[in-house]
User: Fold this.
Amino acid sequence: MLLTANTRFQCDFGVAEAIGSFIIWLLLTIVTLGLASFIAPYYILSSIINKTSIVDETGRRLSQLKVTFTLAEIIGHAVIWVLLAIVTLGLALIVYYYMVMKKVLNRTEIVGQSTEQLRAAPTGSAMTRAAG
Assistant:
């Protein structure tokens, strides 16, 4: 099954999951005196992306998006930005969330479809345009 121009993303991340995630990260932020707030964006964004599928025009799931990274990668990236936030008196935080989104998207894979099928997708397909 090839990805064509008629494919789209479908996210199944629900309100209950959002509320539960918010409560967990709020509690973790309080317990860690705010340090969890630098790690939370990675997990919040990846939980949304991990609930996202690529579907065809009939709604049939073709593939699933999956974010893979380790806690060490997150902490390494976050420590740099915490230090930048301290040095810049918080101004670096404006850019921090964009860089988190970039890092999460760069670690996102399409699973459930063979690599050969993705390579064989027509040049004008939605996936080819999105990947380029």
About this structure: Helices lie at 15-31, 36-50, 71-87, 93-106, 115-119, 126-131. Residues 8-131 form one domain. The longest helix spans residues 15-31.
